[in-house]
Each structure stands twice: as structure tokens, then as C-alpha cells.
């Protein structure tokens, strides 16, 4: 097992919005801070600036930010064991402003030289522009996956997972999913023990599988149909009980066909799918906040059995209930962080 060198791309030639520092700071923290008691030597991190200071380089007018300067340039991407693109400027994503040619060419050279290529959030646009995602499954922040798929039709865009490991090319969704991918790289390079200890020091879950869903929308969209609200509130208070579309229609004083149509117009989903989403949401809340066994959570959420709960979690959220629960350690009365469950899951 070896740590190796990591080249982190920094768009030093533009004004960096303050919120973009998050994706930049994640790999800088994971790979840049030595951990001699875990692995020695640790990673050799190099911040590599794009260095394009031309007047027409993409910027972010009106966006509060500041510039960055780095000791390494794009030529230093070649020879690195891992190259990470944490994000690209917003105009390159939202407005189609071309990425710097020097950056794209440097990414291609690094890959051809044998580097493992990684993107966090919108960094996938840079890898896609370099042709490194053609024919591969890849992801990005769910808010940008449609743009990624439209702009690069050769990429098999997957908007469902936290990150995608395709061997020598890896991509992640935005924000904390980038941290999940970085810890996954440490796990690949240095083993589970080192990755788990590092996650513990960073006070984050030790491991969230890449297949875990980025975002599960279990809410009810806003609607002008105020007559539905009391019916839906009634159902939410009785999720542990059998509920049919006839029950809901009766509460709304309409026919089942009319209720189906009105709910579909208001929420964009069917009554049965709406009920399933609410029950999954209830199960998520109980897994996050209680020590109840999975069998009991299945009953309280209206999903019946532990097997049925596991089936729906795997299908709609991407991981089993036990893995979901482990991502939410709870605070003990003494103030110590403890696992979220003591019961078998």
C-alpha cells in the first residue's frame, strides 16, 4: 500500500468564490496534512495553478471572492500519481464558457502518463471536456448532472450516487460527497484502518458507499390545492396503519380517480408512491434518532417487515438500513458520540 503524490488543480487565474473553497479544502485537508502515526510517508500534495492570467479567462463578476497563487503549475500534473479537479468556475458550467485549453491538455497528458484522475462536484466538466469520461459512468452534483449529460452525450451520467469509482477515473457529487470520495481513495491506497482513523479525526462517518443516494426528495411540493393538505397530514399521522387510495379519497370527499388526478397534479407523483416516500422518510428519521430494531422501525413506518424495509432502502436510497444508521452517530447523555444503534439491524 502506498500514498503517492496528489496534484490538486487550483484555478488561480480567476477570482475564486468563497463557497468554492469547500471542495478545494477537502482534498487539501485529507491529503495535505501529514498523519505520521497512520502512514509514513503520507501523501505528497502539490497545489497546481492553472496560471492563465489572460484578460478573457473566465471570471465571476459581482461574486465575492479572492485570488489564489500556487507554487506549482499545470506542467506538474504530469508525473503525479493522482490528479484531482475539485471544481470549475461557475460560468463554465452555467454559461458554457470554455475551460482553459492549457488545463484540458494538461489533464490529458497526466492521464496518458498513468495518473489516476479524480473530480469533485463540477470538476467532472473538466474531465469530460478532456474526453476522459467518454464511455464511462460518472457523476457530479445533482444540480448539474442534466447539464453534464446534455453537453457531453458520450458520458454515462449517473445522478443517483455519492461517487463513482471507475478504476483509474473517479468522480463525485458535490459538497460532502467529495469528502466521501477522498476517504474512499485513502481506503484504496492505505487500507480501511487508516481511512477509518482519519475519518474519526475529521469527525465524519467512516464510510458511505458510493451507491448511496445523493438526495432523496420525500417532501410534498408546494401546491395551490389547499384541500389536499388536511388529507395528507391525516395520512402522515397514520403511516403505521394500512392506508389505501380509497381511504384518502374518502377523507377528501372525492372519488379515487379524482383524488389520484389531484395528487398527481399537486406533487408530481402517485398516491402509492407518495405514501412510500413518507414511510421511507419516517424510517430514515427513526434510524437517525433511535436505537429501535429495524423490525420495529419497519412496523412504525408502515413498511411491515424488516425485509421489506431493506428492499425499499436498497431500491430507493441505495444502501441497507444498517449502513444508513451507522452514518448518524448519536450523542450519549454524557456527551460522548456513540453508534446510533445497539440492536441488530
From TrEMBL:
Keywords: DNA-binding, Transcription, Transcription regulation. It holds the Pfam family HTH_18. The keyword Protein biosynthesis does not apply. Residues 229-327 form the HTH araC/xylS-type domain. Transmembrane segments: none annotated. The keyword Cytoplasm does not apply. InterPro entries: Class_I_gatase-like, DJ-1/PfpI, Homeodomain-like_sf, HTH_AraC, HTH_AraC-typ_CS, INH-QAR. PANTHER family: ARAC-FAMILY TRANSCRIPTIONAL REGULATOR, HTH-TYPE TRANSCRIPTIONAL REGULATOR RV1931C. This is Helix-turn-helix domain-containing protein. It comes from Streptomyces siderophoricus.
Amino acid at each position: 500500500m502506498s500514498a503517492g503524490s496528489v496534484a490538486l488543480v487550483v484555478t488561480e487565474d480567476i477570482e475564486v468564490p468563497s463557497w468554492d473553497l469547500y471542495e478545494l479544502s477537502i482534498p487539501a485537508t485529507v491529503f495535505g496534512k501529514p498523519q505520521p502515526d497512520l502512514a509514513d510517508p503520507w501523501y505528497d500534495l502539490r497545489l497546481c495553478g492553472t496560471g492563465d492570467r489572460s484578460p478573457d479567462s473566465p471570471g465571476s463578476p459581482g461574486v465575492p471572492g479572492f485570488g489564489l497563487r500556487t507554487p506549482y503549475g499545470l506542467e506538474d500534473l504530469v508525473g503525479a500519481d493522482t490528479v484531482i479537479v475539485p471544481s470549475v468556475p461557475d460560468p463554465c458550467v452555467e454559461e458554457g464558457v470554455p475551460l482553459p485549453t492549457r488545463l484540458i491538455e494538461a489533464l490529458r497528458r497526466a492521464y496518458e502518463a498513468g495518473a489516476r484522475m479524480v473530480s469533485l462536484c463540477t470538476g467532472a466538466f473538466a474531465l469530460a471536456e478532456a474526453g476522459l469520461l467518454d464511455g464511462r459512468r460518472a457523476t457530479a452534483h445533482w444540480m448539474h448532472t442534466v447539464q453534464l449529460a446534455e453537453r457531453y452525450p458520450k458520458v454515462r451520467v449517473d445522478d443517483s450516487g455519492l461517487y463513482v469509482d471507475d478504476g483509474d477515473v473517479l468522480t463525485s457529487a458535490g459538497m460532502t460527497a467529495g469528502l466521501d470520495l477522498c476517504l474512499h481513495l485513502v481506503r484504496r491506497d492505505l487500507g480501511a484502518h487508516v481511512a477509518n482513523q482519519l475519518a474519526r479525526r475529521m469527525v465524519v462517518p467512516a464510510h458511505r458507499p458510493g451507491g448511496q443516494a445523493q438526495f432523496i426528495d420525500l417532501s410534498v411540493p408546494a401546491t395551490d390545492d389547499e384541500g389536499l393538505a388536511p388529507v395528507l397530514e391525516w395520512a402522515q399521522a397514520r403511516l403505521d396503519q394500512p392506508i389505501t387510495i380509497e381511504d384518502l379519497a374518502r377523507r377528501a370527499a372525492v372519488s379515487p380517480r379524482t383524488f389520484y388526478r389531484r395528487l398527481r397534479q399537486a406533487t408530481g407523483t402517485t398516491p402509492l408512491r407518495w405514501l412510500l416516500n413518507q414511510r421511507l422518510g419516517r424510517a430514515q428519521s427513526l434510524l437517525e434518532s433511535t436505537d429501535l430494531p429495524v423490525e420495529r422501525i419497519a412496523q412504525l413506518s408502515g413498511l411491515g417487515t424488516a425485509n421489506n424495509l431493506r428492499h425499499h432502502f436498497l431500491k430507493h436510497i441505495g444502501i441497507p438500513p444498517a449502513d444508513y444508521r451507522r452514518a448518524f452517530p448519536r450523542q450519549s447523555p454524557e456527551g460522548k458520540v456513540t453508534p446510533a444503534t445497539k440492536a441488530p439491524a
